[in-house]
Write a structure and sequence with these properties.
By secondary structure, this protein is of the alpha/beta class. Helix content is 31%, strand content 27%. The protein has one domain: 3-Layer(aba) Sandwich (Rossmann fold). The strands form two sheets. Strands 4-10-9-5-11 form a five-stranded mixed beta barrel.
Length: 226
Amino acid sequence: MLAVASPIEFKAVLKGIGKTDEEPPELWQSFEGATFSILHTGVGKANAASAVMKYLNRAGQNGSRFKSVMSIGLAGSFSDDIGLGDSLLAKRHWMLDEGAVLPDPPGFRSLEESGWAKTSFELPHGELYERLSQVVMHECNVGTVSTISGTNEQRDAYRQRAPVQVETMESAAIAGACQGMAIEYEDVRVISNFCGERMPGNHNFPGALARLQEIIAKLIESDLFF
């Protein structure tokens, strides 16, 4: 299963598989290929996790089981070493904004540190990870947020909470869902912007979508995933 958050990302994926005239399905609905499903999850942690869990459960009830789940989409970069249009494969995931901002001692305390919930995920990587690593430029840690860092102050706050290089809005939530279902999960992203305040030259969404399309086309051609 491919999990795709937004209509524009979904459209790029459809173009990558050669379905240029297809339109993205409704939220929580899927496009069905011969050997894969592409699920339109919606943007954000709650939508992504709920859509994936619902779809995996429905597949199980129908007697089928996916070998793996792969999310694919755009991301923001915290690192100067991971630039616009670069592609990456996630190694480990953190939720960066689920916790409390405390006055004494000052700082952020995650729900996991409080013993209330799990907010970091390191799933075992299998054959799919090894094969995907051949078609991306970087392998790095990914942070997931509900509110993207549109200011430099928010960017810096997130960056201090975990050793991550990239910001997304779905990755860790899907990781948690897949961990609970004991299914392999991999996350491929293309950098569309640098985190923080939008400035001329620090974002390129059309270019990132074009690179996303190229990656899917490459996977199709090389039989790495489909």
